[in-house]
Amino acid sequence: MEGSFFCVFNGARLFLSLHILMICFTHKSYPYGVEGKITSHTTSVSSLLPSPSCSPSTSKASIRKSTLEVIHKHGPCSTLFQDPNPLNHTKVLLRDESRVKWIQSQSSNSSDGLKASAAVSLPAKSGMTIGIGNYVVTIGLGTPKKDLTLEFDTGSPLTWTQCEPCNRSCYTQSEPMFNPSQSSSYSNISCTSTSCSQLGGRGSGCSGSTCQYSIRYGDQSSSMGLFVTDKLMITPTEVIDKFEFGCGKNNQGLFGRTAGLIGLSNDKISIVEQTAAKYGKYFSYCLPSSPSYTGHLTFGKDGGAVSSVSFTPLSTVPRRSQFYGISILGIAVGGNRLSIPSTVFSSGGAIIDSGTVITRLPPTAYSALRTAFRNAMASYTMAPALNILDTCYDFSKESTITVPVITFSFAGRVDVDLDPNGIFFVAKASQVCLAFAPNRADSNLGIYGNTQQKTFEVVYDVAGRKLGFGSNGCS
Ligand SMILES: *[C@@H]1O[C@H](CO)[C@@H](O)[C@H](O)[C@H]1NC(C)=O
Ligand SMILES: *[C@@H]1O[C@H](CO)[C@@H](O)[C@H](O)[C@H]1NC(C)=O
Ligand SMILES: *[C@@H]1O[C@H](CO)[C@@H](O)[C@H](O)[C@H]1NC(C)=O
Ligand SMILES: *[C@@H]1O[C@H](CO)[C@@H](O)[C@H](O)[C@H]1NC(C)=O
């Protein structure tokens, strides 16, 4: 909790006193209300705003052997983006909408889906890629090892990195591009191998006898090249020999300055399946509360960063089997369950995604959430809408704010009280927006996005078909 203070108490802002703050600071615990339920968070406005410096995590997870540090691509902890231009929030939201359209357009034929998505219509000139999240990790590849920073994405199957020499076009990346001819452990995958056939519709014939892949992410973004193997070092001691990945010879789209992507979806070619023997199709991550902190991505059980994790069943979403399906049963605001018929959530189903920023809800559920939230926040000044976000506040004159707790109930009696940082999308102190948006219809696929996952240890037990949430996974 260092660097950001927040404490929680039951009741309205009137009850806020120095005494309560002292309790919060000294015990770092949460006073509970009479019914034993937390109904609101009091948090400093400054803790919601990005800080210009990086405070790397010192959590227990960072000492686990199969753990990678997770960094927000656009924050002060990232070495990729020492960008003089501040993050354009409208662009982030446009890109997010493109990603949602891409996910919602995926067809049953998972081998076909990535290609079919080329037909999706996308906001003109958003200039953004959509198969891409906002968080990156750095892995080692080849012998000798080269460090590569890749976006990680639970919605994408194939891991790929740009490879020398480019065939047609490659984008500018921060780190030197991977060069197969300088790695003694590199091999091509033969066109006739089982691995090549697992590419399905993502295969694109042979180059000589070498298997080729081609992935399109729905706008003009794509990666194509050779399907190959090399040694992958998750950490210096955690080595995956003959890891299969795409050696991208022709890559387009704004993948930022990352070297490519690490695919964590539920698919034969993803890293999850490839490392099944070693890690038992079990991974977890924690996304930090703000870009000024770091989180982690961990493969395998190996201890666990948090003591208590609640599990909800993972479901398969019809026609979208590569994604991780979850069952949302209800939402509460300030401890009061919203009256939303359960069929509203079940008609379209939902997935959890590491790369979608804003949670997408059935419009019926969103409208109930918005009404309850606006009522609870009635004493604050509202601010103009920001793109898809229609409930924004001006907190520029506040030092602390009290916000109702938002609780998601998932199948299996799992109630998740979102972190205060998991409720808002912060453009600036004078425009802090409720980070949820409605789908067009209740029958559209819902998406539990990465803002809402912040600070939780999110555990994917793919073999056990369950998804876990543990609070305080990282700061
Ligand atoms: C942010 O991006 C949007 C959409 O691309 C653009 O219209 C707007 O001018 C940008 N704002 C700034 C400050 O660059
Ligand atoms: C799935 O996609 C593959 C490759 O594009 C195609 O050959 C196959 O017929 C498709 N299957 C179905 C059921 O559409
Ligand atoms: C891999 O295949 C490509 C394309 O066929 C070829 O140019 C390259 O020499 C092969 N590399 C190795 C190490 O076999
Ligand atoms: C290089 O591009 C040509 C077409 O321009 C294509 O036929 C060939 O398969 C590509 N090779 C690789 C390795 O991607």
TrEMBL record:
What the entry lists under CDD domains is as follows: cnd41_like
Instruction: Give the Peptidase A1 domain ranges.
Output: 135-470
Matching entries from SUPFAM superfamilies are given as:
Acid proteases
Q: Which residues form the active site?
A: 153, 353
List the InterPro entries.
Aspartic_peptidase_A1, CND41-like, PEPTIDASE_A1, Peptidase_aspartic_dom_sf, TAXi_C, TAXi_N
The residues the entry assigns to the signal sequence are 1-36
- Domain of life from the UniProt record: Eukaryota
Record-level Gene Ontology MF annotations: aspartic-type endopeptidase activity
Question: What GO terms in the biological process aspect are recorded for it?
Answer: proteolysis
Keywords associated with the record: Aspartyl protease, Disulfide bond, Hydrolase, Protease, Signal
Q: Which PANTHER family match?
A: ASPARTYL PROTEASE AED1, ASPARTYL PROTEASES
Q: Which family does it belong to?
A: Belongs to the peptidase A1 family.
This chain belongs to the protein called Peptidase A1 domain-containing protein
Organism of derivation = Corymbia citriodora subsp. variegata
The organism's taxonomy opens as: Eukaryota, Viridiplantae, Streptophyta, Embryophyta, Tracheophyta
